[in-house]
Give the backbone structure.
Amino acid sequence: MNIYFVVSGVFVVSFVLTFFVRKLALKKNIVDKPNERSSHTVPTPRGGGLAIVISWYIGITYLFINNSIDASLFYALLSGLILVFVGILDDIFSLSPKTRIFAQSATAVLALYLLGGLHCIDFGFYILKTPYLLYPIAFIGIIWFINLFNFLNRHCLA
């Protein structure tokens, strides 16, 4: 099946699910109330990322079933479900930063393990192959990207 069809299907599922998640969040009063650190000025429903996550996992599962992605990559991507679970709990209970960084660290370690490690990083001008440097760089990079995405999602895309 054409990848554009898969992407289009995931987009439609995400769009429809976002409507229902938003409706449920408003009904259950799961909203983010503005404060001095907020990027919004009115109460905003929380949990909208759930629709995107469900769509993402539907898409990668479809690709895995049709042998379009490697099994180790699929399982490494599934490790993100730890972040999904912690994110849902954070939306409901506002978890501490320590809990969130622990979950991010566990996800990064599990993903690297399921990928079978990292063999090299190509900087364009130098290829790093030293495992003692690769794993810390990869670990920090994964944590950095998780937090970068969360920052963009909360402050730039809201």
